[in-house]
Each structure stands twice: as structure tokens, then as C-alpha cells.
Design goal:
heterodimer; A: 803 residues; alpha/beta; Rossmann fold; seven-stranded mixed sheet; 36 strands; globular; B: alpha+beta; Nucleotidyltransferase, domain 5; 8 helices; 13 strands
Chain lengths: 803, 277
Amino acid sequence: MEQQESAAATAVGADDPAHRLADELVRRYGERITARIVQPARPARLVAFPAWLDPSLCQALQSRGITRLYSHQAEALASARRGEHLVVVTPTASGKSLCFNLPVLQAVREAGAKALYLFPTKALAQDQVAELNALNQAAAFGVRAFTFDGDTPADARQAVRLKGDIVVSNPDMLHQGILPHHTKWAAFFEGLRYVVIDEMHTYRGVFGSHVANVLRRLRRIAAFYGSTPQFILCSATLANPVELASGLIGAPVTAVDQTGAPCGERHLLLWNPPVINPDLGIRASNRSQTTRIARLAVQRGLKTIVFANSRLMVEVLTKYLKDAFERDIQPTAHISAYRGGYLPNERRRTEQALRGDQVDCVVSTSALELGVDIGSLDVCILNGYPGSIAGTWQRLGRAGRRGRTALGVLVASSDALDQYLVRNPEFFDQAPVEHGRIAPDQLLILMEHLRCAAFELPFRRDELFGNASVEEHLAYLAEQGVLHLEADRWHWMSDSYPANAVSLRSVADGNFLVIDQTDQRKDVIAEVDYSAAAMTLYEGAIYLVQAQPYQVERLDWTGRKAFVRSTRVDYYTDAIDYTHLRILDTFETRSDGPALCARGEVHLLRRVPGYKKIRYYSHENVGYGNISLPDHEMHTSSLWWQVDPAVIDQHFARRSEALDGFLGAAHALHLIAALRSMAERQDLGRAVGDGNGEWFATVGADSRGNARRPDGSRFDPEQGGDRFVPTVFLYDNFPGGVGLSEPLLALAEEIVQGAADLIGQCPCPQGCPACVGPILASEAQRGFSPKAAASRILSLLGARAWI
Amino acid sequence: MPASATEPSQREQRLASRLQATLVAPGLLLREQPLGLHFAHGGVDLAELRQLPTTVLGLPLPAPERGWWFMDTETTGLAGGTGTLVFLYGGLHFDGQQFTLRQWLLTRFGGEAALLDGVIQTLQHTALLVTFNGKSFDLPLLRTRARLQRCALPEQHLLHLDLLHPARSAYAQRWPDVRLQTAERRLCQFRRQDDLPGSEAPQAFMRWLRAGSDEGLLRVMDHHRNDVLSLAGLTITLAQAFQHPHLHDADAAGIVRRLRRQGYRVREGQGQLAFSA
């Protein structure tokens, strides 16, 4: 909350301890640092309170040491007063919450208005209420703010509904708990003037498409009570914040995107661990590098935060750091871990210790990325790329709160995307490239929310939902016996509560727990994403945790648990994934030389029929196992690339080598497309197969491409004649599609070039997991380079050549 | 197909005559039956309501002349929320001299505003409201429907006796469950014949809307009639069980706990509970 009055407090120059540490790291580890990006300090731009600002509000601000506003806060206030919807896009720690709290508190004071705040997590909601209460107490203007979520006790709910001026909740609660019971909230909706949506960039893809529909329902209910609320959205930096915001709320928005908050100098180092096995392209683990940098920072007296991408890694890094300091002779540093799954009061204690400078270093998941107040920090180390550039900047924004020099270090993992990013620092230095996309009219999602909306209020026959006619959809629901048309109204007539059947984040919720039951233990040793579970946690699989092999003994698919036991084996297992796509309809085509790029509708069949046991080092196939998981089938939309078979034959001695090239190219195209479209990786799938649907390609135990028919039998590409049309598919991994392919087609050239750069810049000789995917050490001896094959395919697709 | 919004269709007229009910508004039927004073429900003469003490089940009762209303609803579901419709509202009215049964039945969604007028009218003429689980189900649902029709229920003056809670304190330890039908069988010796299970009421209404089939609705009306008669019978028998727990196989300790929670001083002697404020 405290705002810097001027940039004079900013310590600048090489004397600053974080600046000195950056210099030291560059001096000692120069070859590991692929880029040093320096953002200059920025002075504050301050403006006076507007004359119409409520005096008690001015007083509250003054009592907290705020005598003027940052320019972006004043802009947001003015825009809101003009009645506009707005999206505020400013960096972390720029006093963002005043951008919505001021207009809201003004409206509460002036007109007894009500406001609804939506945060993606409960922890953020609690923090916001604490902040509002602090402001409120500063001037005792009697504004009541409450959280309303799954933790709100039943006997307190009535009071929140009747007495809350500001209700702070989350989209899931709005969807299942508030809208279907809107009559209980009648007084609140009648007065509803503002809806605040923070962390807007998290509402993208499938989740964002759901949230857009929940907001359509919200606007509809508000209209029933005679109110048309204004929306104030806040977002991390994106390429298209205005487009995403207006897509979410279904109305034009004004952008407030020039920050007036001061900022100290900021150094960002991109750090790549050294290569330890050049043939396989294996690098030292980023854990050890992260530990080393954090230890140096703490030794230099700099308060440090380390971000890890999983709860497990938080624990591992915390242990490494504690061990490291125990070995040191100097007084022990205080290292603390912070993540979801800890009890709330434990987390509050850590937050307090951080604010009170009793902790030297905190290791956290994304739980601390957002607005939780933990005071000022000097150094921020990211153990691996968090998955989006926007998320990277949010985490880095945790350092340097009080205008001192801040140091951020991104320590790349061996993951291909990490490797690509540390080699392309312009992603961090130039205009944002990430687009938040939603598809609110996606048929399945839309139908689910139409059911919910019809339950909430009958539809008029000509009523629009969003801005579109839904009459046909409603007629379909009537045929299903869910709705009943009478006198130009569709009435709900089913004995059910539809919101309970719709989860806004069904995919993200389905993580599998890996439970070690060695020696009667019941320890959770890992979490596996739903989309990866079928490929890694089947019964019989060897699951590796820090190189220690565990065998999966039982998979509880519905309970989302895999029970494993520690084992000693000389092999690993590799699931056989048969993903077979057939093009049903082509919507749009672009042709460039021998290549064709198109988008359309596809049918997908995925089967995981079994797995192979592969011996370490020799890579012999030492056995098979069957997997009995249900087939997965869907219609979805896809983007694809194809090359004229005659041209392929000119460029490749054997078609099997072309197939390897396509598989390697697909690996790189997938990464770049996910990066550009900001798709969650599980939202975008990839496959290589035949344009005619006769075969699909898999990577075999020999790490070479195999072509198979849908029944699993081998297909020999050399015999295919003109009908050999290898195709790279990037498809929406959601039934019916979520609208990724249309924007991807528009970006196709950049994606192909980005993939070519990813492979071309990779220092490995023949290909490695960081560019074309895993390959064999023996490839070079055979005189075949999967890397060169992939590069050749990409140049046929239109990329400028690297070789 | 639906007829015009105001003209009753043939099937609505047929339903009205089969029920001996009147079409009081487009989409709404009212069945009204005077039942006299000495009406026998199972083994209970409902006229005994006149002999109740002034405080019953821990509630000081208003005089019956001011209107007692034994009320129940039938709905399109148990899920709650704004998508659940009350398609049958009604009850047994007692004014100290005689009983009158009144049941309002929707024949279309369009009749709901008129049905809620009926709700408001009856509540205005009611001093004591008697229900079974009405505090958590029927009344909140009626409030929701009223909000959706942009009106409000007159509730300030109502004394609400929800029989579920006293029945639970007296019999939760004695019976396998404390549902209305269990209570009426055990306390009123009332046995239903060919009764439609309550859970099938939503389907009956939906079959009427979709296909115009009225068999189910006729049975829902009878089921509802039995429900509200049992409310009156149970008010009498539960009041007796609270006074003489041992004569009615009631759990005296549970009753004493409940009355003490309500702030009464309770004395026990000679198989009888005596309590004072």
C-alpha cells in the first residue's frame, strides 16, 4: 500500500548490493549467462487527488502516507467516473489495487453502491479484504468488505449477503453458489455498480471461456435487478489485454497501461546450466544452480525469493538450501518454504516473518506470485520458466519493491521451452508476444452455461446471450426435456441443479498424486498433471523421482492416485501413444511453395495400448506390458502443415527419415505455438500423421518414427506412392475445440520460423530433448541427424534456413 | 400446443372438472373444500385443536379465530435455487369453527404470479403457520419465487411452527426416521392408500406440461391433501407427546433438552412434563 513519493529514494548505480551481486555472477559464471537485461529506473509520475474524491477517502489515503496518486491510478479513477469498463495493465507492485479500490469506495460513499471482486484464489481474496479493512479503519468510513467462498461458514453467509458493500469471491463461487441463488442476493444485485476482476490473464483458454460465460450470466442477473455494473479488470502484461478483457465481459473496454509508479533499476540474468553430456544434450540440473545462486545472494545479505514450479520442488530446494547453510560456518540463515497445502496460519506466520525481516530466503510456488503482502525483497530466482512470460514478470516483480536495484535470475531447466527462451532474450526485452485467447461460444461450454442461465431465469424467446441469438440452442434443450417453451419464454423444468455439473477448471483440478507405499509408507512423492497421467502412471510403469525408480503398482483413475513402490531396475518404461487424426473439414488454407498450412475440423482417437521396457544405455527393448485405459475420442479443431510428397522425395533419401524430420519439427512447432498463443500446454496437442487418415506416426523404442495404421499394424511409407502425405497437427485438446487454431494460422509463419530458430540455435550436434525431442546417442554413428531432418522439413514449410 | 396465454385450453377445463376446482386465473386452478369441524384424520378428531393448551411445543399460540394455516408445497425438485418451481401450494385453514382445504395448482408457468397472490392472501389471513420442514424448504422457496415475480411475502406477523424439529427431539431416538409419513402413521394411525410417493410429484407435473396427462396431477393433489391434514393431526398428537412423553413412547430427555434450549424451566413428575417460562 505504501507509495513512493519520488524516485529520490531510489539507490542507483553499481554500489547497490544487488547490482554488485549481478556483476559478480557475470564475472564468475559468464559462460552460463546467456543475457543480462537491464531495465532503467523509472521515476514516479504523481498527480493530485481529484477535487471530487470523497474527503474521508482522501483522509484515509493521507493517514497511510499517500498524498498524491500515481498517474495510472488517477487515469483509472477518471475512466471509471466516465462510466467506462477498463482494464489496468501495470507491473507488479505498482499500487494496482487502488485503481479499483478508489472508484469502488467512492461509489460506496457517494451512492451506497455495491461491488463484487473476483480473484482466482481464496488467499488473494482474504488479502484484499484485509487491505480494504485497513483503509476503512484509517478513516472509519464504515465500508463493509467480506469474503464469500467455500470457507464462509453457513451462519455468516446471510450477513455477507445483506450487509456486504464489497463482496470478495472467486469465479467458481459466483458460478455455483451465488448466481443460482440470486434471489437471496437481491439487495446486493440491485445496488451492484462495479465488478472487479483481478489477475485477468489467468482467465484464458478453456477456463477463460467458462469465466466469460459466467460473466454473461452475471450481467443477465444484474439486468433483472435493474443494474448494469461497470467492470474493472487488472492484468499482467499481455499482447492483447484489451481484446481479452472485452471478450470476457462482452463490451468495449478502455486500457490504462502506462504506469506512473516508480521503479528501481532491474537486472535480469538468463542462466543456462552447463552442459555435462554434449551428445545427449544433457545439462546440469537447474536445482543445483538455483541453490548456488540463492546461497550467494543470502551470503551477500540480500533478501531472496526462489520460485519453483511444483510443491515438490519447493521442498527439495528448501532442503538443499538448509543443508548448504548448515555446512557453512557462518551464522545459520533463515530459510522458509511457502506453498499451497500448508495450513493457512502457517502461511500467515511465514508472511509475517517475511515482512518482519526474520527470513533471509523464502522458497515458494506461484502462491506468492500474486498480491500477498510479504514486504520488500532484493533478489528473485526462478527455478525454471514458469510457463508464461507474463508469469515470469509477475514473479520477478516480487523483488525490488522499495525502489532499490532488483536482481532477477531465470535458471533454465533442460525443458525445450526453457532452452529456447534463454537463447532468445528478446522475449523479455521487447513488446509482449503472449496472447490470451478465449472462445466463449465454444458449443459445449456455451450449452453448459445456457443450462445454468435458464435455471437462474427463464429466457425470453428473442433474448441474446452474450451478444448472440441462442434460440436454436434453447430449442435443443427443450427437445432434451430440460426447458419448456410457454408464451415466448423458455422455462427450466428439470429436477436438477445444473451448476453442480459444470466445473470451470475441470482439467487443472485433476492432478494425480503419486503415493509411495514402500515399507508401509504413505508418502506423496509427486503430483502429475492429468494430461500426462495416462502416459506416465499406468500400472507397471517405472516412474522416476530424482532418478530414483518407482514402479506403479496400482492406478486409481477416478481417485486420481497412483500407488508406487521403490524398486531397482535397469530399464525405464515408455508408453505407446496411438493418436490418430482424420481431417473432416477444411475451413481455411494458405499455400506457400511446396507447403500447405490449413485449419479445420478433425476427428481424434487416442489409445494407450501398452508400454515398452527399455534398457538403460543400450536402449534394447526388453519387454512389453499392456495398458487397459479407455480410448479417448473427440471432434476438435486443428491447424496442420503438409508438404507435397514429390518435394519430400527430392529432399530425403528415405521417407522414414522425412518422418523423423516431421516428428522433430512437430516437437518444436508445438512449443513455439504454445508460447505464442499462451495456451496451457495441455490445451494444445500435437500429432504427426497422414493427411488422408491412413496412418499416424509414433516414436518407437528406437527413438525413430514409425508409421502405423489405426489398428496398430505397421505401414511402410516407402510403399505409399503419392498417397504419402505426412501432416503435422496442432490441435485443440478439448472436444469441439477452443478456438486456438484460427489465431495460430494467422501466426503460422512466425511459428515455423520460431521452431526453426529453436532447433538451429540449439548447440547439440544431432538433436536433443531441448529441440527435436529425445534421440539416440547412436544416431551420429549411423550418419543420420534428426536435427538436420527437422530443419529441412521446417525450411520446406517456409522457414529461413539455418543449415 | 399451448393455447393463447389467457384462454383456458380444453385439457385445463377437463382437469378443473375432474378436480372439482375452479380456474381462478390463466394457468391457475383453485380447489376449495369445506371440511366442517369434527373431521377424522386416521385416529384423530381434528376438532381437538380447540382443546390445545395456550403454549404448544414451546410456542405460545394465537387464538384460532385469527387464522391457523397448515401449509405444504409440491415442487419441481428438491435441489433448491432459482430453477425450482412451486407448482402446488395450499393447506388447511382453521378458524376455530371449521376447516377449509385450499389448493392452488399451476397448469402453466404463466399462472405463477396469480399463485403467489394466493400465497400472499393466505399469509395475510394467517396468525399461526404450521409446516413440516417449512423453515428450511417451503418458505425459502416461496420467498425465491416471490422475488422472481418481483413481490414479497408478508411474514412479519407470522408465528411459524415447524413440526419437524419438535418431532425430531421427541422421536429421533425412537424411530428409524422422522419423516412426515412415519409420524402420521405412528402418532395419528393414519394409513395412506394408493398414495403417490412425494418424489414422483415433479414427474407428474412435467408429464402434464409435456403431454397433457393429468392422472399424475390428480394423485399429487390427493397426496398433498393428506400431507396438510397430517400437519393438523400431528400438531395435536405431538402436543400430547410433549406433555406425556411416556404415554406416547416419546424421548422425554430429548423433549426436555429442546424446551430448555428454548428457555423454559421444565419439571418432570408422574409421567408428565410441566414447564414455565
